[in-house]
Amino acid sequence: MKFELQYTDSKSNARAGLITTDHGQIQTPIFMPVGTAGSVKGVHVRDLKDDIKAQIILGNTYHLYLRPGLDILEAAGGLHKFNSWDRPILTDSGGFQVFSLSGIRKLREEGVEFRSHIDGSKHFFSPEKVMDVERTIGADIIMALDECPSGTSDYNYAKKSLQLTHKWLDRCLKRFNETEPKYGYQQSLFPIVQGCVYPDLRRQSAEFVSSKNCEGNAIGGLAVGEPTDKMYEMIEIVNEILPKDRPRYLMGVGTPANILEGIERGVDMFDCVMPTRNGRNAMLFTKQGIMNMRNKKWENDFSPIEEDGESFVDTVYNKAYLRHLFHSNELLALEIGSLHNLAFYLWLVGEARQHIISGDFSIWKSKMVKQVSTRL
Length: 376
Fold this sequence. Notes:
This protein is α/β, with parallel strands linked by helices. 42% of the residues lie in helices and 18% in strands. It has two domains: 30-272, TIM Barrel; 281-376, no CATH class. It is globular, with a radius of gyration of 20 Å.
């Protein structure tokens, strides 16, 4: 994987770059639609490419490991062949999902034992096992196993958790370097900076991660219960240390405003389930603000969903019709909501990139944060 830093904003830390993988290029800043079980819910590959214009999507190691399972994925030739997506893929390590199962997992230095949310069967993830699983899934970018503590964790727990994450990273790197990709193209391993909301722990982690000289780095453990201003503070602290010539990935974040604030602070890559999850629940993000499509105010509004929207659904369908679909529990409503929100998110980061290049990002961003946060 190669990363070219192309432009930097003179009034902030915002950057525009280009990531090159064996499955294609990614213009940054970028938002990555989440395909937890190998699919972006309710969205065809054709629409991901042609309508939403996604450049990279995510898969989830925990979910893919449990179902369909590694034998099927390997027989298919990896996730790209299995789901017919021929552009870049990133897989997380499954750590966040495992640690969210607090009642049905046991954590120790060797790794984490957990029970499947599907059938209750017992499984074990070690750093080595996760590297093997991600080799089999075959994503272009794979994540190291980490522990993700809650944003409200006390200092002592956060410190012990960080020590474990760093030990696991060394084991992930060792296994990664001992093994080869399975499907004839290269994979890149990103370590994850942790440390909760404690500046000294975040600095320590960012320095440790930077010393590993990986092809990119991730910032984890944010948007997990801590105040928003703390999240922004941690991003600033970490990005002062992470190398400028490698892409920076902020995991699991977030709202349109969160993404714009992250870009301003030097983040290059984002993912979040919010556009699809909220879209399935009738919340649409638009250039003018947020619409709840269940509201009665749209009942007789036959104007397009968004006059200057980025998806074909925005002008083909009207607000009254979409409201009717949601109230009728029609599956088409979920698809329209997902397509619209994903197209908007991709438009947002694309516009940010253009304004970084043109030199007026800070002015544009200040206006857009207010607009995209307005309730319509």
